[in-house]
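If you are new to this repository, start here. Below is one unmodified record pulled from the training split, so you can see the exact layout before writing a loader.
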Amino acid sequence: MDDQTARQTQATTTLSATIGREAPSRGPYRTLVVGPGEPFSVRRDLGGAQPDRFQPLVCFVQLSDLHVTDAQSPARAEFLDRFGDADSELAPLLGRIGVYRPQETLTAHVVEAMARAVSRVERGPLTGARVQFALSTGDATDNCQSNELRSYIDLLDGGRIVSTNSGHPDRFEGVGAAEHFDPRYWHPDGSPEGEEPDLPRALHGFPLVPDLLPSTLRPITASGLPLPWFAVYGNHDALFGGTLFPHDVLADVALGTVKAIGLAPDADPLHLLVNNEVGPSPALWGLISAPTRRVTADPERRPVTADEWITRHLTDPSDPPGHGLASAPAGRCYYGFDAGIVRFLVLDTVNPAGGWQGSIDEAQLDWLEAELIAGSGKFRDASGNRRRHDAANRLFVLVSHHPLETLMNDFSPNGTRRHLAPTLERLLSRFKNVICWVNGHTHTNTIRAICQSEPDSSGGLWQVTTASHIDWPQQSRVIEIALDVTNGDLVIATTMIDHLGLVDPRSGPLDEVETLAGWSRELSANAWQGRVDDKPVGRGAPLDRNTMLVVPAPFEIPT
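And here is the target side for that same chain:
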């Protein structure tokens, strides 16, 4: 590979070039290579004609699951990840656990590299419309900590010095440091004298990258998004590990000097992990009774409540005010905003009681129904009867962290009602002008057609789920909504963006953001858990990436 190719980065979108894993060689570890661009795939699952000529309605960027991480926090439970490794008898039951990643020290660098990439995408590639705003669809932080929240806002705002270092100012105290060697973690500087290579190196071919960890401690100057950006609440923004309500006991762990490094001998990992989708661990993930080591305390690791999450956005000088939250009901994380004829409804799908899957409460369901009625000249009521009233028709795009199918968490220790996917699907089926639902959470590029439930009826909505910034392939999307002026259909175009990390990070110095972001992407491509056919998941199929999604217009769109 020549030097120019080695340092190549993505300048715009994956229409022009893609990044993939190299062909198999002698070992299991794969470096990355630049490949040909990927054209649009047309999807007409919901009906409509072949797309022809476009009048743009709105164009925006979606970033999801940034997972800006304090990798040294004592409130993290990386030791649980080994129960998803191939040699664990629990792996078939637990699958990928996701509480440890070799690249987790590099999250800020990936977000910065993505902000630089987004700044190069000034217009939608299908319609040529100028990009108007960005959506950050939840899990912007990894462990609901104050220092993570500050870093994520500063990274997207730009013009600020950002550091995810915490605890000791000059020494890395997270997993992977030689000082506390554990063979289950990747040690980029190599194993200490007298120790065998760690398992990521021995089994999975991970490389040595001397001085990587000290490089992650250095602050960076954030470029920021060149756009107004809207915030969406995710389960990792609200809960420790995306699962546990951050009550006083866990707050003490985060603020303290004691870091758990393993489970107590009598702890049952299956009991701790298996039900976390729809409820918090009954034993706080073993953080209280586990064997421990000492770390440096840091008051900025305190957990952030929903009220503080809202307040921090409201007090940030921003356009739009509060990154959208200024228009939310008091103390709530759901709101609406307009972009021409399109109204965006941002949902809060986090269950605040715990569990990493989603749901919504009664008040939000009522708000959502009222919003849809207010923008629909005709619809069906709850009994299925057709209704008309004097309302200006709008097109609706829902925005949330959780996709529809993950709204399964009705855990409610105080007995309040939580609404799940079937209720939302029934509500949305009454309104043909809901055309798209944009979300994240699964760390996988997926596009799904949700059809109208009426017999012999075309139409429905497209659910666009976008991968994360922490796991392979570390991408975001440009999303364009346009009217096809030839046949009157609507077209939703989705185009993937790769961040500006080096395709071959060995070609750059470790004091450059592009080098560190490149290492993060390459490491994520070699994750050893959650693989299918020995390949990392996340990228999705071609029909989940660069697409033109056709949906019959629910009413006549003005031209």
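Two things worth knowing about this chain: The first helix runs from residue 3 to 6. The two ends are 50 Å apart (CA to CA).
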